[in-house]
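[audit] Reproducing an earlier prediction to check determinism. Same input, same settings, fresh worker. If the tokens differ from the archived copy the diff job will pick it up downstream; this log only records the rerun itself.
[audit] input (97 residues):
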Amino acid sequence: MSLSREQVIAARKLLRWSRAKLSAESGVSSGVIVIFENGLHVPPSGALAALKRALEAAGVEFTNDGEPGARMKNGLIKLQFRNAQLRGKITRALSRA
């Protein structure tokens, strides 16, 4: 499956990642990401593969149900929510100590 600029933008928004963060995680320069997201040029297949790997490793699942899209894997959302709950409990407990 190919990766569209809309999918990359959606995936970054889901993760709340900046272009700089995606660049750091994927090894693809932020300039290439900007040009791709703005629709000016499609990067080489190696760069697209690196972007996809980085986003999938962070929990994004790419879809192609009629229209290409991106969503978080369900298990990861539950885990992230649970981790946030635990962080809140730990923070509250430490502030009371």
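[audit] rerun output stored. Observation attached for the diff report: The CA atoms of residues 15 and 58 lie 8 Å apart.
[audit] end
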